[in-house]
Amino acid sequence: WAFKTGTTNPWMRLTTYAASGYTNTYADVNPTIDFGQRVSMKLWSDKSIKVCIQVRETGTTAPIGFDGGTIGTIEYVGASGKQANGCPIPTHTVTASNWTTVEFNLPTEPKAAFTGDGVLTGSKGVIEGISIIPNGGMGVYNVYLDDVSVTSVSTNLTIDTSATIVVQNSATDADVPAQTLQFSLGAGAPTNAVIDADSGLFTWTAQADQSPSTNAIPIIVTDDGTPALSNTKYLNVIVRKVNTPPRIGGLPDSVVEVSSGTVVTFTATGADDDVPADTLTYSMAGAPAGATLNSATGDFSWTSTGTLSTNIFTVRVTDNGSPTQWDEKTVIIRVSPTNAAPVITLGAATVTEAFANFETFTNNTPDEFVMFKKPMNSSTTTNYIDTTATNYTRVVTSFPAGNPDGSAKVMMIGWSFKTGQSNQWLRLTTINAAALPNPTIDFRHSLKFSIYTTKSLKVGLGLRETGTSANIGANGGTTGAIEYAGCSSQIGTTPIPTRTVAANTWTTLTFNLPTEPMQTLTGDSILAAAKGTLEHLILNANGGSGAYTVYVDNFQVVYNYSLASAITMNTGATLAFTASGTDPDPGAGLGFGLGADDPSTAVMDPASGAFTWTPDGTFVGANAFTATVEDDPTNGAFPKSSSANFTVNVVADPVGPLSAGSTSSSDSAAASSASANE
Fold first, then answer.
1. How do beta strands 230-240 and 156-160 pair?
2. Is the confidence at residue 668, as pLDDT, over 60?
3. Do 29 and 70 touch, CB atoms closer than 8 A?
4. DSSP helix/strand/coil, 467
């Protein structure tokens, strides 16, 4: 609230008194207190305040905390007087921004009349209000209140069931030097009573099965002399039996969503600590028409009706103690038109693993020190190349725009085909190159890379069946037959590729090796279903004779998987698939997503269901995923969802993409670079 500026003696009175139209279902209206005891509370305020309490002299005999009534005069407690406008003058201050325990010792506190005479009369009454006076100026105040308690100070105590007593015991010893004293409880002490052996602090909360009772609790202090001597005093506690409220359970923890015509059932349960146990009955308020609740068993049943409604009601359990006590909770049942959950399908997955790119190479890394050797190195196709023109392979940072891989560096290849010849082609070879001599690939999967050419080309692959067991990208050897992949025929010795790359545009080529047409160079036109090496790029002139400039980048192996079982992939590889969903009900579309605990770097497009993930070393091990689809019904029904789980085992890539070799032209440097890559 805020205090007005310019006012005289401003104050604010928070009251528990029941006003018309207000119902408090969680606490008694005016809680009973004992005028011979202390009332304390914890307060926090963002500005300094002064506080006192209003106590109504109702003369009630109700237990502490129970409703003590609203009839009787009111006195200010903790106030030295009051202003002409009725504003009290409190004696307790709460400083700004500090939790403060304010205690009102009712017998000794200063008092002032509100509607009474400034003197507390009777043994019991109620706390009906808290008066707050600004001590930090006008304007907005935010105050927090907690733990309003009644404390009795005595060694002869009378308490109610569930009340807690705290006694700070002390002891002295005449021996010099002083001996160590230890506190303990003697035989007959309540089993749930506790005393701190060093400090003597005693606490006990009287349970329902411990009331009514009279307890002489032995408090023992023992020294560590020889022999050990002790002294015992008794704490006398009378526990009055007070009816404790029952506790309700068995109700739905969340909103119940059902379609019209569905039968909703549950069984309310009640627990009561009183001994002997009270008889419990069940009731409800505000329930939908036709709902039934068995008052003895708590069995609830309702056949939902209507097409769209939200039904909020309370279920209560009440005991037959004196006074009666109860507990209740709210139940929410929402009825909507029928809506079936969509079904999610994960689809086929691919894992794309790069084994050669050129990001770590020095700009203009020259011939022989990149993945492919320069065009003149292939004796098979040298006759088609114009030897008077420069031919080369090198790494460059300046290349045509539009590279789909977004790389900063690519490999550049240049040569010129002679004029006056037919079936011109070039066999670009990796064999014995100084960096990545013959990279291992898997013939049971796909090969993918990006290419740009200044004149149209037909492109195929030369694959050597080495039978290597090396990791993808590692040197796979140079022994074994060679097959031309992605080539439908041969004219003489010239293979004819099936892939055409148009001029002046970046193109991504994918070769599904198990299904590609094959021709032979030294093999049998059948590609072994095993690992081998990429040894050649077949580049056929499709744009006539003359100069060609070609750029290539990001050579990758693409694995095809089903997500029905766990898959295994290397760090740095990319898993991709597109989830789909089917929904028999009308709706505005489906939305896709991932589980809250899925790896944070994974991405699923909410509209298309496209999933991608490139794990790094922090995800080595098993990674569990949950893909979800949720519908968006247009008929007022509640959205429904379904999910599918899959597991990805990530292992550290032992090789990684092609790394930079030496740029030295000496034989020894070149050999050293090749060894490092192997």
1. parallel
2. no
3. yes
4. coil
Strands 256-259 and 326-336 come out as parallel
The encoded tokens of residue 166 equal: 């705290």
Burial 10-44 (b: 16+ CB within 10 A, else e): ebbeeebeeeeeeeeeeebbbbbbbbebbbebebb
Can you read off the two tokens belonging to residue 153? 């100070």
Q: Which residues contact 627 (CB under 8 A, 6 or more apart)?
A: 344, 346, 579, 592, 593, 594, 595, 604, 609, 611, 643, 644, 645, 646
Contact (Cβ atoms closer than 8 angstroms) between residue 498 and residue 510:
no
Any residues with CB less than 8 A from the CB of 565 and at least 6 apart, and which? none
More confident of the two residues 658 and 317: 317
Tokens 């160590």 sit on residue: 180
pLDDT, tens only, 228-284 = 999 988 888 999 888 888 999 999 988 888 888 889 999 999 998 887 888 999 999
pTM for this predicted structure: 0.55
Tokens of 305: 């009706």
Residues 6+ away with beta carbon under 8 Å from 185: 193, 195, 202, 217, 218, 219, 220
Encoded tokens for 472: 């993808």
- 400 backbone dihedrals φ, ψ, rounded to 5°: -60, 145
Beta bridge partners of 644: 627
316 forms beta bridges with: 283, 328
For residue range 585-625, what is the model confidence (pLDDT) as tens digits? 877 789 999 999 999 999 999 999 999 999 999 999 999 99
Give the residue from 459, 452, 350, 441 showing the smallest Cα distance to 407: 452
Q: Do the strands 156-160 and 194-195 form a parallel or antiparallel pair, or are they unpaired?
A: unpaired
Phi-psi region of 525 (alpha: psi -120 to 50; beta: other; left: phi over 0): left
Mean pLDDT for the chain overall: 89
